[in-house]
Amino acid sequence: MLTKYFMKVVVRFNPFGKEAKTARLFLGSIPPHQRQQGTTIQNKLLTEGSSEKPLLKVIFKDKKEMEADPTTMSFQEVSNLFDRHSKKLALKETIEKQ
Fold first, then answer.
1. Helices assigned H by DSSP within the chain
2. Between the CA of residue 67 and those of 35, 54, 56, 73, what are the distances in Å?
3. Could you count the other beta carbons within 10 Å of the beta carbon of residue 26?
4. What span, in angstroms and rounded, lies between the C-alpha atoms of 19 and 13?
5. Listed GO molecular functions (predicted)?
6. Domains, the chain, ranges and CATH?
7. Which SS3 state, helix, strand or coil, does residue 92 take?
């Protein structure tokens, strides 16, 4: 997954719910050096009685916000969703360098 263009990541999930696997894989795919490059990562664990819904949200460096529901999507689907926009930004960056 291309995380180079992530500016902010928000993850909310119940560690005992079915969304936990997708959320944990998503968090694990963000390299540790990403925080040093200015990416903010907010993680919130939800309880069984919580009224908040599980969420994976990414704000890219071009200010575009994308959200995914970890209860209905697999990690591969989430990765493909966020990679689609990251690849557009990578292409744009490559064109601007030339």
1. 20-28, 33-36, 75-97
2. 20, 11, 6, 11
3. 22
4. 7
5. structural constituent of ribosome
6. 6-97 (3.40.30.10)
7. helix
Q: Is 63 left (phi over 0), alpha (psi -120 to 50) or beta?
A: left
What is the C-alpha to C-alpha distance for residues 7 and 3, in angstroms, rounded to an integer? 9
- pLDDT for 98 beyond 90: no
Joined together, the tokens standing for residue 96 give 């601007």
CB 57 within 8 A of CB 67: yes
**What is the maximal distance between C-alpha atoms in the chain?**
53
Residue 37 pLDDT: 86
**Reported confidence tier of residue 18, pLDDT bands at 50, 70, 90:** very high
pLDDT digits (tens, 9 = 90+) for 40-94: 999 999 999 899 999 999 999 999 999 999 999 999 999 999 999 999 999 999 9
SS3 77: helix
Q: pLDDT (tens digit, 9 = 90+) per residue, 27-45?
A: 999 999 988 888 999 999 9
